[in-house]
Design goal:
Length: about 170
């Protein structure tokens, strides 16, 4: 019983005095249940998804219940004024949420359909070469088109062109 009380005190201490680090560490542990699309949409979307899951009652699956816990933490974080940043091709890590100033940055692994190995490969290749096109990412990191579409949707790819090859007509401003 004493161990549980000490653990609760430690958690409370970090939650109060180091909130960004607390949320980054907690979300890293619970990355499999992290619903990045819903959380990036903000407080109303999180509340709506939580209400949907809670309305299921006993019919909610274990995955949905676990996701609801993470959504509750994300809601609390946003209400405390701590913002979350989407994955970034040049700043995100493979599996770990990171603290960037006043923000918490998502890792690659929270992208739907992107597994841990692919996320690690993406981080590894990024350190080796500078990507010049989305086509190169697809080839080097062996990610699917659906993952690339999700990365594009979340703004992860920045202003990378589709292909490395330039067209003469692309340079003309007519």
């Amino acid at each position: 019983a004493v161990a549980y009380v000490l653990m609760a005190l430690r958690i409370a201490y970090f939650k109060v005095y180091y909130p960004k680090e607390f949320y980054a560490a907690t979300f890293t542990i619970k990355a499999a249940q992290f619903d990045s699309r819903t959380i990036l949409q903000g407080i109303p979307a999180i509340e709506a998804e939580m209400a949907r899951i809670n309305a299921l009652g006993m019919r909610a699956t274990k995955t949905e219940k676990d996701t609801c816990v993470v959504l509750e933490l994300a809601l609390e974080m946003l209400q405390r004024g701590i913002k979350i940043l989407p994955p970034d091709l040049y700043k995100s890590r493979a599996r770990h949420f990171t603290v960037e100033g006043e923000f918490v940055r998502m890792p690659f692994v929270v992208l739907p359909s992107l597994g841990e190995k692919a996320a690690e490969l993406l981080e590894e290749k990024r350190a080796e070469v500078e990507f010049c096109s989305i086509e190169q990412i697809k080839k080097e990191c062996k990610v699917s088109q659906s993952v690339l579409d999700c990365m594009r949707e979340m703004g992860c790819l920045g202003d990378l062109p589709e292909k490395a090859q330039l067209s003469f007509f692309d340079t003309l401003k007519i």
